Amino acid sequence: MKFSERLHQKLQPIWRQNHAHPFVKEMGEGTLDKEAFRFFMVQDYLYLIEYSKLFALGAVKAENVQQMETFASLLHSTMNEEMALHRQYAKKFDITHDELENAQPSPITLAYTRYMLYEAQNGTIAELVAALLPCMWSYWEIGKELNEIPGAAKHDLYGEWIQMYSSEEFGQLATWCIDLLDQAAEGKSEPELYKLEEIFLNTTRYEFMFWDMAYYQQMWPMDQSFDGKKR
Ligand SMILES: Cc1ncc(C[n+]2csc(CCO)c2C)c(N)n1
């Protein structure tokens, strides 16, 4: 069994929770609160700035020119296509250029991006790919699942999101990263594979927390006036 299949199978219970999150479900049904999506878009814009750096680090750690080229094109497509979608959504949701550029990361955005960057900077190429893969792979699966809901991809607000992440082009990028992880895992010892599994598990968990953060629009709790209620 390929290493990626082992991960995918083992983490199914958490993986399914991502698909079942109300943010994802309501996006598919077209009922998601606009404010939650707006919050998500701003945080995701910040997320993508940091995430793009993983591709740049991938190009640095690449083991051959072909890998280097693919990381460079992933960096290009994230900054120019995926972030273009965010800028387009920003217009739709009246998010000004200033708001986007001056936005502050929520605790989860900060924790998730810094965790990935730590692993990418300090780890092997296999560890870097293990950190970035749940992001690409889970969005592709979620995109495809939502695209099967009749009318979802045509929805006035959430349709473009579904179209982008379910696209064939996007699937090819995710597949390339899955194959790279499998190649990098070949011949590794069990303790080394366990380390990769742990990183993959953590970023899968962070994916869930990112949906949750957006759904409940969570910033630092102490920034709101303290009301004495138990949280
Ligand atoms: C929290 C969060 N997780 C995953 C993605 C999806 N994503 C981010 S970069 C990239 C690679 C191709 O551009 C993909 C698929 C996201 N946007 N936000």
From TrEMBL:
Protein keywords: Hydrolase, Thiamine biosynthesis
Pathway the protein contributes to: Cofactor biosynthesis; thiamine diphosphate biosynthesis
Gene Ontology CC: one annotated term: cytosol
Major enzyme class: hydrolase
Reactions catalysed according to its record: thiamine + H2O = 5-(2-hydroxyethyl)-4-methylthiazole + 4-amino-5-hydroxymethyl-2-methylpyrimidine + H(+); 4-amino-5-aminomethyl-2-methylpyrimidine + H2O = 4-amino-5-hydroxymethyl-2-methylpyrimidine + NH4(+)
EC number: 3.5.99.2
Molecular functions per Gene Ontology: thiaminase activity
Active site, UniProt feature: 207 (proton donor)
Top-level taxon: Bacteria
InterPro entries for this protein: Haem_Oase-like_multi-hlx, TenA_E, Thiaminase-2/PQQC, Thiaminase_II, Thiamine_Salvage_TenA
Gene3D superfamilies attached to this UniProt entry: Heme oxygenase-like
Biological process (GO), any one: thiamine biosynthetic process
Boundaries of every Thiaminase-2/PQQC domain copy: 8-215
Family statement: Belongs to the TenA family.
Subunit composition and interactions: Homotetramer.
Function: Catalyzes an amino-pyrimidine hydrolysis reaction at the C5' of the pyrimidine moiety of thiamine compounds, a reaction that is part of a thiamine salvage pathway. Thus, catalyzes the conversion of 4-amino-5-aminomethyl-2-methylpyrimidine to 4-amino-5-hydroxymethyl-2-methylpyrimidine (HMP).
Protein's UniProt name: Aminopyrimidine aminohydrolase
Organism: Gracilibacillus halophilus YIM-C55.5
